[in-house]
């Protein structure tokens, strides 16, 4: 217990030393905050990508798309395929979907219209919460749209507004939030016949089918059976698990976010060097103080701990500031990126925030080791002689 109290008191002394050197400490804190801001944003992107592309044992959704087509504008399938797909063993439900996007390439401002049958909302497996407006009004209006909360924030939309994009004009009947599928928070859900007519594709034609499978272990088997049924038709299909479909369709997006990992590691190394350099300057400027501490009975271990504590304080406070700043920025700006009609929303999770805080503490500890060794070594006479 006494040892813990002693360590705490030494930590308080280190905090006073950090506060005394205001200019150096402030610049170091700003540098650490900038590095952890970048690290948090990149980790959020990486986690969002993993969530969207890495399959789990519970995934039971297949995407039936037009073979050799990627952009929603080029994928056209007859709506009557739904009846054939339902006959496949292991298929639980089939949802015909029409998708229209304002930009099929990689973009930060992608608007996706998803046309679905009205009755699909009632039997949908997705958990959708209506934050504003009502489902009843959406069902009554042919041009009604349920806008995801992220899209509503980005475009500053409210219930009762009219919304135009990609040549489609809709009435905002409600603002929705989907907990299980973050993509739904970034799209406009409209009536299937309305979207087919507004996009001039025509009734009876859809972009894709979302297929629910009874047993997740049969995903590949059901996918092969679906493609086999339409292999000789004029519109052959390509069926993949939902997350595999995302990974194969948005290759540019996957490569872009994958490359950002190196930037994240670079920011971590920069923060480590910054904190270590700051502490080294502090150690060299306090040679006389360390000699006085040794004269008063401070051991080498105690002086080393004071130096390490200084690094921990700078890295932890600066890191928490950068992490909170990144979280606030991503929530307020509703940052998302889309490709081929698929959207990734970047919202930091508890895991990302916790990882950032732990990383800050570890960086502070690592950055303070060498300066702590320099501060603790040598006798009193040697320390004074170096002044």
Taking the alpha carbons of the first and last residues, their distance comes to: 37 Å
User: What is Rg?
Assistant: 29 Å
User: Describe the biggest sheet?
Assistant: 10 strands, mixed
* Oligomer category: single chain
Count the helices. How many?
Answer: 14
The global form is elongated
pLDDT < 50 runs, ≥5 residues: none
Helix content range: 40-55%
Order of helices and strands: HHEEHEEHEHEHEEEHEEHEHHHHEEHH
Please indicate the percent range of residues in DSSP E strands (runs of 2 or more). 15-25%
Overall pLDDT level: 80
Number of separate strands: 14
What class would the helix/strand composition place it in?
alpha+beta
List the helices and strands and how they pair.
Layout: H1 2-20, H2 22-53, E1 61-66, E2 77-78, H3 81-86, E3 91-101, E4 112-116, H4 120-123, E5 128-133, H5 135-140, E6 144-148, H6 149-155, E7 162-165, E8 168-178, E9 187-191, H7 192-198, E10 205-206, E11 208-213, H8 219-229, E12 237-241, H9 242-249, H10 251-285, H11 287-295, H12 300-333, E13 336-339, E14 342-345, H13 350-376, H14 380-385
Parallel strand pairs: 4-9, 6-8
Antiparallel strand pairs: 1-11, 1-12, 2-10, 3-4, 3-11, 5-8, 6-9, 7-8, 13-14
């Amino acid at each position: 217990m006494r040892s813990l109290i002693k360590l705490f008191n030494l930590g308080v002394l280190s905090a006073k030393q950090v506060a005394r050197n205001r200019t150096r400490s402030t610049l170091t804190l700003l540098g650490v905050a900038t590095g952890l801001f970048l690290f948090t944003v990149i980790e959020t992107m990486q986690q969002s990508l993993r969530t969207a592309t890495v399959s789990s044992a519970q995934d039971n959704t297949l995407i039936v798309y037009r073979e050799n087509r990627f952009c929603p504008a080029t994928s056209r399938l007859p709506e009557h395929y739904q009846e054939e797909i339902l006959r496949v063993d292991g298929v639980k439900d089939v949802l015909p979907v029409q998708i229209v996007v304002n930009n099929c390439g990689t973009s930060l401002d992608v608007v996706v219209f998803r046309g679905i049958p009205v009755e699909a909302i009632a039997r949908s497996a997705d958990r959708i919460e209506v934050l504003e407006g009502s489902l009843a009004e959406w069902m009554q209006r042919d041009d009604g749209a349920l806008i995801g909360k992220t899209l509503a924030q980005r475009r500053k939309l409210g219930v009762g507004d009219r919304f135009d994009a990609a040549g489609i004009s809709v009435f905002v009947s409600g603002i929705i939030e989907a907990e299980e599928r973050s993509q739904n928070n970034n799209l406009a859900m409209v009536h299937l016949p309305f979207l087919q007519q507004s996009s001039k594709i025509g009734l009876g034609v859809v972009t894709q089918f979302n297929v629910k499978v009874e047993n997740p272990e049969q995903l590949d088997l059901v996918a092969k059976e679906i493609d086999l049924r339409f292999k000789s038709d004029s519109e052959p299909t390509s069926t993949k698990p939902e997350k595999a479909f995302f990974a194969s369709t948005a290759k540019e997006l996957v490569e872009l976010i994958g490359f950002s990992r190196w930037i994240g590691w670079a920011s971590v190394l920069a923060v480590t060097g910054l904190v270590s350099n700051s502490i080294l300057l502090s150690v060299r400027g306090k040679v006389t103080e360390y000699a006085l501490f040794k004269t008063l009975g401070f051991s080498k271990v105690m002086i080393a701990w004071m130096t390490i504590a200084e690094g921990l304080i700078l890295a932890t406070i600066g890191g928490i500031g950068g992490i909170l700043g990144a979280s606030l920025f991503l929530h307020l700006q509703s940052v998302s990126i889309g490709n081929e009609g698929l959207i990734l929303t970047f919202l930091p999770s508890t895991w990302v925030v916790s990882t950032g805080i732990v990383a800050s503490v570890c960086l502070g500890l690592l950055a303070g080791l060498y300066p702590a060794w320099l501060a603790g070594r040598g006798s009193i006479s040697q320390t004074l002689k170096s002044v």
